[in-house]
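Lab notebook, bench 4. The sequencing result for the construct came back, and we need a structural model before the next group meeting so we can plan mutations. Quick request posted to the team channel:

Model the 3D structure of this chain.
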Amino acid sequence: MADTPENRRRDGAWSMAELRARREETVFAHIRGERRGTDLDAAVAAFADGEATYDVIPLRPILGTPEGRPTHPTSQEVQTHLAELTAGFPDLELVVHRIHHAEFALIVEGVQIGTHTGRWNGLDPTGRRITVPAAVFYRFDGDRMLNETVYFDLATMMRQLGLSELAL
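Done. Here's the predicted structure in token form:
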């Protein structure tokens, strides 16, 4: 990042340009760690103090997650979720189409693509490829990432896997 007046810290606070850049760096480090299960430790470490929480909205009813509680409230549960997800879809990646900045969040629009070649959430491998639009909200306190909330169309994903009902 260029050392310009709008990018310098003033009175201990980040400039908006610097804060946005730091948030993007954090999110993309996290996404790189998730991609194809490359480095799940790095994916979790991208969160503030390594304390990751995920809320995968389409999985809430399946997991029986109570309202107001994330589906994966601890770093260990996030790590387990990511390990299971990348075991089921070893080539899974989020292809980023757009990034939006908000006061306390960075929002990524994209497509999750991958091939279901391993067991995932009780589903035997189908060998089918998925291409599922997704919106991911990364919540921040300053430049510290606190939470990831994921929205995607589970019914579309199940259809692409050749499943007529939610077998999860």
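The CA atoms of residues 99 and 108 lie 5 Å apart.
Will bring this to the meeting.
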